[in-house]
Design goal:
Length: 346
Amino acid sequence: MKLEKKAWGTAKTGETVYRYRLSNKRGMSVELCNVGCSILSITVPDRDGVPTDVALAYETCEDYNRNPASFGCVVGRYGNRISGGRFSFAGKTWQLEQNEGRNHLHGASGAYGRRFWPVSEESEDRLTFRLESPDGDGGYPGGLTACVSYSLAEDNALSISYHVTTETEAFCNLTNHCYFNLSGHASGTVMDHEVFIGADAITEVDAESIPTGVLLPVGGTDFDFSVPKAIGRDIDGSHPQLAFGGGYDHNYVLKKTDGVCASARSPKSGIFMEVCTNSPGLQFYTANSLDERKAGKNGAHYGNRSGFCMETQFFPDSVNRPEFPSCAVTKDAPMELCTTFRFSVK
């Protein structure tokens, strides 16, 4: 295992941004930076042993200070949507910034994904980024400390651990917003990728992608990935939920399991990715409106459906839905979440 580090640019707040590279002996490497503790690349061998970068990303540090597509960053304080940006918490009603129509998405202008995260711990196989978020930060109640650790194993597994503490009470929903293309980041459409998701239901949404509270069974529908199938097979089907997101952009209610909850495979490269998590949900997003045709790394043009996200998370708008799993954090009950992406060929 090996860790390399070099200065890469400057954050909006003036700190020096470093580019970090973790690598193992089996040919896998992961590059990260301090802005949003973002993933800049994930390089793994394909079926012929050719190193293949499977993570969409921007070219420069300045791109990450803006990061309109949320490439590879940790989104928060609340990843996904809050209806009307409004909720009740600790006996008080709170109003957040509305940055997607009338709703709040990914922390809005106070997004963690564009913040500078100092590295608090580093070793040859692990990096930990730390962010202090005081009471009222971004309009959210309660101060918290978020630590996000990336670790690389010799079996080509990248694990992301989230440790959140508070001295009072707060809530948050942190997830990584990496876009994957297992054929290679600049390979165009991912519609041929074969995907499995271990879930019996999605959280049904309205036309604004806000959950209705209904857990909608997926069996036998366009949303059924219980048996691996190509993303493109049903993405333009007749299911009314598909029209709201222009494709897949929905939270899957994961089954209770200690094993693999989702997977994806590129038939072109043979690269196979398995996902394990203790989070209750997974937002499957197929980059239905992506249009980063000029800013991609190495001159790549990223268009519509040229990547997919598997964002392990609490359910959208859970702060307004007491029937959903709670994303609350208290002094006596810190948040401990972990997601592992394991790569091989198949």
